[in-house]
Design brief:
single chain
Length: 82
Amino acid sequence: MTDTEELQRILLSNLAIHADPARLQLCLSLSNAARLANLAPEAMTAIEQGKACMLSTPTLIDLTVILGLDQSGLPKPRHPGR
């Protein structure tokens, strides 16, 4: 497995756990989040359900940024006092 494949596997795994809560925290519907990321709603659903998808690694990273996650698909740490 190449580094790119491993990164994509990690991203998809983390997004399966954190994409839906992050999207809801931003008050985004599934279709609006998909539109912001230039994805079909079906692709967004597949990501949130942890199903395999044929999206590129840069596209997955863009999605993490849109959802306010770090580039690994994990929630960013909260700042002290928040």
